[in-house]
Amino acid sequence: MSDGLRIRLDRTLCDGFGICAKHAPEYFSLDDWGYASLIGDGTVPENDRDAVMRALFDCPVHAIIYMGEHRPSDDNKVREEPRESSEPDPTAGDSNEAISGFVR
């Protein structure tokens, strides 16, 4: 059983269509220019899941990002929050030479 889901909003992708605020106004607000802002920390309880997922699927520019589900712990241990992967370092090692076709 899920404790809810987590989402994130990439405001750099938002083009101000406002569909997210139409479907889930408790989680998305629009600024004076029509661009979306996320209300809260991105945690969505199970009872609001359908509205938020509809907003996510209907976003024409995919600015709403699904971060996963919160699941209650059976053993009551504190779990570390999921983190996004860091970007690979293009300067690390010579492994990127074959990809770019660059020859020294």
UniProtKB/TrEMBL annotation:
Name recorded for this polypeptide: Uncharacterized protein
Start and end residues of each stretch annotated as Disordered: 68-104
Organism from which the protein derives: Mycolicibacterium celeriflavum (Mycobacterium celeriflavum)
InterPro entries, A to Z: Fe-S_cluster_ET
Record has Protease as a keyword: no
Coiled coil: none
Keyword Iron: yes
SUPFAM superfamilies cross-referenced by the UniProt entry: 4Fe-4S ferredoxins
Keywords: 3Fe-4S, Electron transport, Iron, Iron-sulfur, Metal-binding, Transport
PANTHER family: FERREDOXIN (PTHR36923:SF3)
Compositionally biased residues, Basic and acidic residues: 68-86
Molecular function terms from GO: 3 iron, 4 sulfur cluster binding; metal ion binding
Cofactor(s) annotated in UniProt: [3Fe-4S] cluster
